[in-house]
Amino acid sequence: MGRAAPPEDLPPVERFVAVMRRLLEPDGCPWDRAQSHRSLKPYLVEEAYELLDAIDREDDAAIREELGDVLLQVVFHAELARAAGRWDLDDVARGIADKVVRRHPHVFGEGAAARTPAEVERRWDEVKRTEKKRASLLDGIPTGMPMLRQSAKLGERAARIGFDWADAAGVREKLDEELAELDAATASGDCEAVRKELGDVLFTVAQMGRHLGHDPEEALREGAGRFRARFEAMEAQGEAEGRPLAPDGDARRTLDQLEEMWRRAKGSPRSGL
Questions:
Q1: pTM confidence score
Q2: Which domains are assigned to the chain?
């Protein structure tokens, strides 16, 4: 027979920690008790992307809900560590509070005033380099970060020592060069060379996004979202015509027909445009 849930009159965060602690007790939830920091990795990534989706939709209720799911992951990891006698949620909160104070000397200390967001970022990076004692300027960029964003970060770090194009026009010239090399590799039939040159093209595209002031990962995510919406609008057209889109059979359309449906979808409210 189960026990009662922690009382609702507890402070909300304290109650949530108590809920997670109960789940991880010997007679708690078998699934929760079987988890580890490593096994929870995909859930953290999934919840973060669901939060991004809610933010893009500007759905306030969904943002609140998805933030709760992200918080679940934070508390879950903290409780796993507490149960192992290493640290707990208070240590996590204490550590991040201290870090934010250290990295905002223009607010909490006697550092020089920072008048713009760019100055704040520069000071943040200066304090971080002192704290981390990194061997390379590229240290601290997570290798698990989505690759377009990681590529932009790598270029951003290299730019700090002047290793960068002067402007977006310079990146555009480099993109033409990389595309020509990809064409040559494709013509040669060398699969390894094609993959290498394709990687160089995508890396350069990420730098183009950086120089244009846009996160390439976000730009691609929005572009994929537009494709999804337009394709679904095409499917709706097919349904309305009594000929649902199908990969084969009599209902299969020609490419010209599909292109026409795509053009109509671009003007459809369903496509978001």
A1: 0.69
A2: 12-100 (1.10.287.1080), 103-132 (no CATH), 147-214 (1.10.287.1080), 217-271 (no CATH)
